[in-house]
Q: What sequence folds into this?
């Protein structure tokens, strides 16, 4: 039977977790609010009910898919061109490995994201992109901030939905009509 996510936000635990990590000089860039996790399909499939309950005790909530402005961390074992990961990169969010989840559960507080940042040398070599550099660029300035993007009418279905999410995550705005060609 399919597993139901019973992870919710526990605001009473979050301040304790945040103060414990910032007291050691870590995670200062974490937003003041709950941790909202978005998982790759492979990582999600491997999570146990016990691990989900432990995340809930830490104050985390789980988003079934990308939620703009709400998702704080993407958890993945490999770098893939999924909607969730592309949006996380565009937002410059923490992209961590499943070991970050396990370390956080073990410590009963949020582990340092930098120690568990996703590194996928093979995928980075294939795409020609260094993930840590792409995240740093997105944190400085969203890739599409102030730019209009037209999606051709041939872009339909799930591909269109993903493209709309990625454009929004990158700070772009969708154009209803193609821009005029420069003369």
A:
């Amino acid at each position: 039977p399919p597993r139901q996510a019973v992870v919710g936000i526990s605001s009473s635990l979050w301040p304790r977790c945040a103060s414990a990590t910032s007291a050691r000089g870590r995670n200062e860039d974490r937003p003041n609010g709950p941790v909202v996790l978005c998982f790759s399909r492979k990582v999600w499939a491997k999570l146990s009910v016990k691990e989900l309950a432990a995340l809930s005790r830490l104050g985390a909530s789980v988003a079934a898919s990308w939620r703009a402005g709400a998702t704080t961390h993407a958890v993945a074992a490999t770098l893939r061109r999924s909607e969730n990961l592309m949006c996380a990169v565009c937002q410059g969010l923490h992209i961590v490995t499943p070991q970050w989840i396990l370390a956080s559960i073990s410590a009963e507080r949020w582990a340092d994201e930098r120690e568990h940042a996703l590194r996928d040398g093979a995928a980075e070599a294939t795409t020609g992109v260094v993930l840590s550099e792409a995240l740093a660029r997105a944190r400085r300035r969203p890739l599409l901030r102030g730019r209009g993007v037209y999606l051709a009418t041939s872009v339909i279905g799930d591909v269109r939905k993903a493209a709309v999410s990625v454009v929004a995550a990158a700070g772009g705005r969708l154009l209803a009509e193609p821009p005029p060609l420069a003369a």
Notes: The chain has a mean pLDDT of 82. The radius of gyration is 18 Å. The first helix runs from residue 14 to 22.
